[in-house]
TrEMBL record:
<dbReference type="InterPro" id="IPR010926">
    <property type="entry name" value="Myosin_TH1"/>
</dbReference>
<dbReference type="Pfam" id="PF06017">
    <property type="entry name" value="Myosin_TH1"/>
</dbReference>
<dbReference type="GO" id="GO:0016459">
    <property type="term" value="C:myosin complex"/>
</dbReference>
<protein>
    <submittedName>
        <fullName>Myosin IB heavy chain-like isoform X2</fullName>
    </submittedName>
</protein>
<dbReference type="GO" id="GO:0003774">
    <property type="term" value="F:cytoskeletal motor activity"/>
</dbReference>
<feature type="domain" description="TH1">
    <location>
        <begin position="1"/>
        <end position="116"/>
    </location>
</feature>
Amino acid sequence: MLLITDHAIHLIDPDANVLKRRIALAAVDRMCLSKLNDNFFAFIVPTEYDCLMASTRKTEIVTVLVEATKGKSTYEIGVVFSNRFQYHPAADTVKEVQFEQIEGGIKTRILNKTKR
């Protein structure tokens, strides 16, 4: 479950009723998502590790986050649309997500990259 407040993004496990992660909105540099009609998006958090998620409400999530930070004097979440982007699920790991429109849908690949 994803809970968005004026100050943070909360990732909650509803089955265990446990907060899995709290990300301060000020720590989120940008969101990356494809130009296609898929469900994937990533929160890019340079001071921690990034978070790749999937939701059928991707558009609504982006809208809420942009509105929550719009006009803040110290930070605003950027939104990057690209059919290929990298994210860091851990300090020593880099992955690349690739999206491709194919007949009948969208092909999504997540590749391990070498960290430099």
